[in-house]
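Subject line: Sequence and fold of a protein, written as structure tokens
Body of memo: The sequence and its backbone structure tokens, given next.
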Amino acid sequence: MKKPKELTISKNLCFLRKQYQFSLEEIAEKLGVTRQTVSEWETGEAIPDLVNTLAFADLYDVTVNDLVSFNETAIGSKIPPKGKHMFGIVKVQERGQIVIPKDARNIFDINKGDNFVLLGDESPESFGLALVPVELFLGFSDVLLEQLRNGEGQTGKTRES
């Protein structure tokens, strides 16, 4: 039998409450419990039931799995919002290759031979690179091209408007 993950819900509840700048009283009010109950959950004296765990996950926009077992120390980053991932650090090889981590390949169904468009942004507030599947990028491009052919601009107005 696989060893169960360490439960880190208390640390995560405390971290997320502080990150969202909520007081114990505000959380208690949102969940319909006492301040003391929230405090016990954050200190590990008690564990929230499933209904409250789901409420916390919705409130903080995280997955239940991350709320319950995300280990900041082991992962090296803060608990991510739902659908956002940190797969670790990749190193650029001599000829510019990078290896996409297995978890990323599994989640995004990336297979040998798949093609991507590599996009880049140089602006300081959003500096970085992004990989977009060719099919998705071309589909988006087709929509834009069709809008241009129909005389629609960015606002969706036609030339006749």
The chain has eight helices and two strands. The helical segments are 9-19, 24-31, 35-43, 50-60, 64-69, 72-75, 102-107, 134-149.
